[in-house]
Amino acid sequence: MRPLVVGNCSQIVTMQGPQRARVGPEMSEIGLIHDAAMVVRDGKVEAVGPRDEIEWLAPSDAEYHDAGGRLVTPGLVDAHTHLVFGGDRLDDFEARSQGKTYAEIATAGGGIWRTVAATRPLSTEDLASQAAKHFDLLRRHGTTVAESKTGYALDRDGELRSLRALQTLRPRVVPTLLAAHAYPKDQDPQAYLDMVCDELVPLAARAGLARDVDIFVEEGYFSHEDAERLAMAARAHGLGLRMHVDQLADSGGAGLAARLGARTADHLEHTGADGIAALAEAGVTPVLLPGSVWGLGLSRYPLGREMVDAGLPVVLATDFNPGSSPVPSLLFCMALACRLMRMTPAECLTAVTVNAAATLGLETSHGALMPGMAADFVVWEAEDYRELAFWPDVARPANNPIVANESCPSEP
Ligand code: NIG
Ligand code: FE
Prior knowledge:
Elements: E1 4-13, E2 32-41, E3 44-50, H1 51-54, E4 63-74, E5 76-78, H2 90-97, H3 102-107, H4 112-119, H5 124-140, E6 143-149, H6 156-167, E7 173-180, H7 189-206, E8 212-216, H8 224-236, E9 240-245, H9 253-259, E10 264-267, H10 273-282, E11 285-288, H11 290-295, H12 304-309, E12 315-316, H13 330-340, H14 345-351, H15 354-359, E13 376-380, H16 387-390, E14 402-403
Parallel strand pairs: 1-4, 5-6, 6-7, 7-8, 8-9, 9-10, 10-11, 11-12
Antiparallel strand pairs: 1-2, 2-3, 4-13, 13-14
Helix pairs in contact: 5-6, 6-7, 7-8, 9-10
Bound molecules: N-(iminomethyl)-L-glutamic acid and fe (iii) ion.
The site of fe (iii) ion has 5 residues, from loops.
């Protein structure tokens, strides 16, 4: 394949910084190059820098892509999504608009279980096409790599079908087993958790179907003891742990994630200073999901500013799912985080690129545009990177994200 020169970029944000996986006061360093260009060869970044240094160096047989004075960033990385589901939750949405809460709707038979009823009958092929359709929504907003959870079948075979469906999106989608999303209504809870820990986790690990497991720890869902049990099973089989914690109330979930050595603690809307200190001490990455706070019409956003100031490598993700977050756009999450979580545009961009990639084990290939890394990049309808969070609906990918490297992330 001919080398490619991407020239005439108003800015290229390389995300090259002194400590790439961290945000914080010292990390407003995002590797910003004005009037920039980039050379791509064999799907990888070969050189990136000021246009007058790069363009004349370009190989003579290179194809030239004129970015038209636009902004270029790494393809965005969405580290928390739920792509495999059937049906919709418009009835829940309407009930919330009439004042019902997420918990009330779930108790009345809606919520996750409504989606389970629509997901269980689907074949692996149907699930794969649903997941592909949802991933395409993310791509249209500049995401080139995403994590996706299962969790809407809640039985052995359906969870396995969901994992198999996600394999069809590899390597762009990194699968996580979220069989512990809710207890199924048609099975004894203890027997279900036994099955998850003793059968599903070993099977998923052995067949290489998932990189991590996840669990929803919340009143009415899974307990701290359940999470301890799942964490042991995951560790025994070499899978990492991601956790939904402190979303609807502070149940000490951040401290639990720290004790269990989780890779990520996600949501954290109700996590306070103690929880933040515990995450920092244990080196657990917080994954913040402002789209789901907005999606549920709530007002308590996670303490993003405080987490950045505590030195945590904060990640922002969409939590795209049929219930709480009908949000495929990481830019919209950045817009919320800038306005309601007091994070800066640079911190937000770090949170959806390098920091997110690191939680998926892709820190050496994705989330940054440095020589040797995958040439996954987006040319935006914008000139300045701060526009991404300023007006997310105007700053859209100029065309589908350009992915020069189709065989990117490593196997889990
Ligand atoms: O991350 N909190 C649990 N899981 C999802 C919501 C799932 C749903 O409502 O379908 C979340 O917000
Ligand atoms: Fe989620």
